[in-house]
Amino acid sequence: MSEQKSRLAIIIPCFNEELVVKSTVETLLHVMDTIIFKGKITPDSYIYLVDDGSKDTTWSIIEELREKYGDRIKGTKFIRNYGNQKALIAGLSSVREIGCDCAVSIDADLQQDENAIETFIDEFHNGADIVSGIRNDRKTDSFFKKYTALCFYKLMNILGVKIPPNHSDFRLVSKRGLDILEKYNEEGLFLRGFFHELGLKTAYVHFNVKPRALGCSKYNFFSLTSLALNGITAFSIVPLRIIAACGVITMLGSFLLALEVLLEKYILHTTPSGWATLVILLAFFGGLQIFCLGIIGEYLGQIFNEVKARPRYIKDIELK
Ligand code: UDP
Ligand code: MG
Hints:
Elements lengths: L7 E7 L6 H17 L8 E6 L6 H12 L3 E6 L5 H15 L3 E4 L10 H10 L4 E6 L7 H16 L8 E8 H8 L8 H7 L4 E6 L13 H15 L2 H30 L7 H34 L6 E5 L1
Parallel strand pairs: 1-2, 1-4, 2-3, 5-7
Antiparallel strand pairs: 3-8, 4-6, 5-6
């Protein structure tokens, strides 16, 4: 028997997950029962489901589960779809309000290994404030997703955000971590970067990823790109500095070019040639300028969203 007992809250973001939500909840209740039996968590530990504006019957299944299992099942339904990050933030903030010693977030399709939760709790009892799940591999990801994710983590590292590769949103956060999160009101908070940057004591647990049992991935090319861009602009201003550096390099280059042209005209007395060079340079710098404007635009968009200070999400119903 363990001497330390904590109240655990498991957070599950759900978006159109009617095919899997019931079996996921039942599996997790079973996992919780085992950990309760071992004396590591208290019997009032619970599951908190965030229905991210599902269009299918996910919410009525959650209500049925509540009927069946009582207040071991809690949750909320968003008024519309806000995306997985907002659903996670809502879950973390709600379980803090309801009360818990630690919270674990896991996907509704249970692709992450639910048996690692016990190891998460052990690490928490050993003093970690954050326990991050790291995927052993990306075998279940499509070719496209595997390589874009790899590039994203490489890029983030280059930009100074040292997130370990194969990081996931399968993690444990202590009450202390939840309290700190509450102080951040950023609209575009990118949780993977956020918890990594806090500097709280972090433990890493490796887990195997399973293929999705039923249903399909809720991410597409556009939502993944948006998540990646959000992650970059929320955590690094290095791209803006690169633009400034490009400006300086271009300026130096143009001085050299000007020198060459002047030399040809006044000293060598030849007509400056180079129509092809001109066209290439024009096209190149035209493209570079629009690209740089695009990057600045991304930051501008981020500021635009932040200054409006709209609520991050709106809850339609909540089961406490
Ligand atoms: N999800 C969500 N809102 C969204 C998209 C996804 O809450 O707009 C949830 C989804 O129900 C699941 C988790 O986020 O619990 C991860 O989604 P998914 O399994 O589709 O992503 P993948 O495993 O393909 O990365
Ligand atoms: Mg999944």
